[in-house]
Backbone:
């Protein structure tokens, strides 16, 4: 995939005639925050999962059974595209690939803000932090919240209210680099 700008309608028609081009999509801005659900706090209960500090979502999809077999994400780096990340969140900081052994952070190649080009991680709504926690949160805390708690994570922010397909493309390219 590539993103281009300042292309005329005639040039688009000419490109569409090339058999190697599978699709041509618009890069028009759209409201991406309308497309996401915002985290809802989970009410405490007394089920068996809670007694073992395993969140309901882990048991629901059977991830705890894989954990018993030794599969917890060790050696894997996950990439999340969302509203950003609070990289110092207690359930996520230990698994941030950009966290050095001395506790300092190296955000280059571990965080990309495709929306505003901020150099340090931020989360505009909490949604990205929540989703990253669902993927691989929980290392270093008492609650098992992520499917792959031993995995590392990197993050790319593309969702902030007004987005474009090119921002998501930048994120995918960042993950592949």
Residues:
């Amino acid at each position: 995939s590539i993103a281009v700008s300042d292309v005329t309608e005639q040039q688009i028609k000419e490109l569409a005639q090339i058999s190697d081009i599978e699709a041509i999509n618009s890069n028009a801005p759209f409201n991406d925050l309308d497309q996401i659900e915002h985290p809802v706090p989970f009410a405490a209960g007394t089920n068996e999962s809670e007694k073992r500090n395993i969140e309901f979502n882990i048991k629901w999809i059977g991830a705890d059974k894989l954990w018993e077999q030794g599969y917890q994400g060790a050696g894997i780096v996950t990439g999340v595209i969302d509203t950003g990340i609070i990289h110092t969140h207690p359930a996520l900081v230990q698994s941030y690939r950009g966290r050095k052994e001395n506790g300092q952070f190296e955000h280059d190649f571990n965080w990309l803000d495709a929306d505003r080009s901020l150099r340090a991680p931020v989360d505009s709504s909490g949604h990205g932090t929540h989703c990253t926690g669902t993927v691989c949160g929980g290392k270093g805390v008492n609650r098992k919240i992520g499917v792959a708690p031993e995995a590392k994570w990197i993050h790319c922010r593309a969702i902030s209210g007004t987005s474009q397909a090119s921002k998501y493309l930048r994120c995918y390219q960042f993950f592949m680099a």
